[in-house]
Amino acid sequence: MKALCWHGKEKVQIDTVPDPAIQDPGDIILKVTSTAICGSDLHLYDGYVPTMQKGDILGHEFMGEVVDTGAGVRTLEKGDRVVVPFPIACGHCFFCAHDQFSLCDESNPNKSMLDKMYGHGGAALFGYSHLFGGFAGGQAEYVRVPYADVGPLKVPDSLSDEQVLFLSDIFPTGYGAVEEAGVKPGDTVAVWGCGPVGQFAIQGAWLLGAERVIAIDRVPERLELARTKGRAEIIDASKERVMDRLNELTGNRGPDLCVDAVGMEAHGVGTVDAVVDRVKQAVMLGTDRAHALREVVQACRKGGRVAVAGVYAGLIDKFPFGAAFGKGLTFTMGQCHAHKYLRPLLQRIQNGEIDPSFLITHRLPLDEAPAAYKTFRDKEDGCIKVVLKP
Ligand code: NAD
Ligand code: ZN
């Protein structure tokens, strides 16, 4: 089959590789009908996630048709159309039993590596390095999906691939970030980053009753989408001082809930901390660029909440922990427990409350994935979200 494979920093290509096969009784094989490139894939593309190996198949946002089932699979059969959440979860460990699917204790065969880094390692993720299990991803013609009775969600034929594909990740991630942070009616929610995750955090904030949403980025078309589809007030970080604008907009109090939908490759706009981060990341002295996260902590109101949806992987230098402590902030963060949002969010799509396809700017054949990675990373050609068709 054809698959998009990682071959090094900024080097991905379509290779011909062996078709996946059932390995465990709980597996299914999917014929992928649609897959997408995520901001998290960019951390792999840009070489910031360790333990990638040449030839690893990328992709954790995908859906398709079941073409083979293991002997133990009870809930799915050949021909079913499913969308697959990006963390791999066993469904029965302590963490899965507590709906913390991305912290699953069982799914990651390389958990001991993560244990060394984090004290306690979490779930495997599709197509996301050997540290996260070494599972092949879904930017391919076929993919093996383990624990098939736990993750994949059957989707009705009345909904198109484009309407349900983002249940795999960015819709639950953006929505879940504000939900877990306890957004409530009356809240002013500020969202850093108007990429796909930020767009869904904005949508989630409205769905859950926020009173105001303020969106921050520096890419014009992304800000524009936040303003039009997201009905957000916008701040262009390349032109305005974010902290000052947020204070102006909130009567000097600061937003109630601040969402970091940027992550470890944040751009700083000429500030000293951002330059230091960039140098340290380049020479591998520090691993994460935390410019947005620092600003989030500074800007949040006293007693406010910080939701970190953006991915951080390693160490952050010069983190204003004193400000976080002094203001009594509450943090929620982590890889999304996507499984727990699948059904409720599918219901919202079916009810017509939201059509997640609004942010797709590029529809391309899988063959064009290598160029699409660059277009998405560099935000060329108005690119906000790429959907690939194998
Ligand atoms: P993206 O790269 O398309 O979007 C990031 C956006 O942040 C860009 O529009 C960029 O211009 C903007 N940005 C950069 N620096 C900024 C700054 N200092 N202030 C404000 N905006 C800034 O990616 P995405 O797909 O939207 O993903 C965003 C983050 O969420 C990534 O780190 C990704 O890995 C992460 N993510 C997390 C989960 C999870 O489960 N927690 C799931 C999916 C993605
Ligand atoms: Zn993703």
Overview in brief:
The protein has helices spanning 39-45, 94-97, 111-118, 161-164, 170-180, 196-207, 220-228, 242-249, 272-282, 291-299, 321-326, 339-350, 369-377; strands at residues 2-8, 11-16, 28-36, 56-57, 61-69, 81-84, 87-88, 124-125, 142-145, 153-154, 188-192, 212-217, 233-236, 257-260, 305-308, 330-333, 362-365, 386-389.
Give structural notes.
The structure is a single chain. The termini are close together. This protein has 390 residues and is an alpha/beta fold. It is globular, with a radius of gyration of 20 Å. It has helices at residues 39-45, 94-97, 111-118, 161-164, 170-180, 196-207, 220-228, 242-249, 272-282, 291-299, 321-326, 339-350, 369-377, and strands at 2-8, 11-16, 28-36, 56-57, 61-69, 81-84, 87-88, 124-125, 142-145, 153-154, 188-192, 212-217, 233-236, 257-260, 305-308, 330-333, 362-365, 386-389. Helix content is 28%, strand content 21%. Helix 11 (321-326) links the parallel strand 15 (305-308) and strand 16 (330-333). It is built from 13 helices and 18 strands. The strands form 4 sheets. Strands 3, 5, 6, 9, 10, 17 and 18 form a 7-stranded mixed β-sheet that branches. A 6-stranded parallel β-sheet has the order 13-12-11-14-15-16, sandwiched between helices. It has a 3-stranded antiparallel β-sheet with strand order 2-1-4, with helices on one face. The model has no long low-confidence stretch (mean pLDDT 95).
